[in-house]
Amino acid sequence: MRYEFYTHPERPGWYQVTDTKWMLSVSFEAHRFNETQQVDDFGGLEGKDAQTIAHAMSELGDWLFGHHYSEVFPAPTFELRRSEDDKALHVIGHKIPHVCATFQTDELDSLDDAAERLEKMAQFLRKRMKAHFKK
Question: Would you kindly state where each structural domain of the chain is located, as residue ranges?
Answer without folding.
Answer: 3-72, 78-132
